[in-house]
Amino acid sequence: MSNGFLNASTQRRNRYLLMRHGHSQANAQGLIISTPERGLEAFGLSSQGIAQLDALLLDWRWPTPTRILHSDFLRTTETAARVATHFALPLQREPRLRERNFGDFEGQADDQYPCVWALDTRSAEHVEHGVESVVSVAERMQAVIEELEHSTAGETVLLVSHGDPLQILLTALKGRPLSQHRDQEPLAPASLTVLS
């Protein structure tokens, strides 16, 4: 898959902050919640996630966002809302920033993730067990940035998403094989990454 003008060496018109949602109720329960049917209305932030975000906002040391786009899952919406309130910004739902769909593993224990990641290392295009392919995730995540690059300039855009999609995006932007997305250091809940 070509990364086009989005690769790491390309000068971007906007600055991007990538944020993983705060610790969630799904994290607390050790569950995979990856479908809109379950993730849009339930499994929001845990009390730990709320505390993480309060601490993060109290000690904000990143560029101040001028725009916030977020996955429409409850945990990312609640994360983005806390940041938006802090900076008095509106929210923009962006379904392309959703969690990767883990297919047959939906609702199962999160110790099943490594089964999917092992398959990912063999093929970034696999859809075994009904899992969304790494290639598909990379395409939709990159499309968000590409669209912003064509429509705006000079913004500091905060994209609030999920661990796997963000790691896949970062791998794609570095021009690395997508099958190696788990070589990217895992993103902690409520962590921020600045695209340089």
Automatic annotation (TrEMBL):
CDD domains: HP_PGM_like (cd07067). Keywords: Hydrolase. Signal peptide: none annotated. It comes from the Bacteria. One of its GO terms (molecular function) is hydrolase activity. Its EC number is 3.1.3.-. This is Glucosyl-3-phosphoglycerate phosphatase. It comes from Halomonas chromatireducens. The lineage of its organism: Bacteria, Pseudomonadati, Pseudomonadota, Gammaproteobacteria, Oceanospirillales.
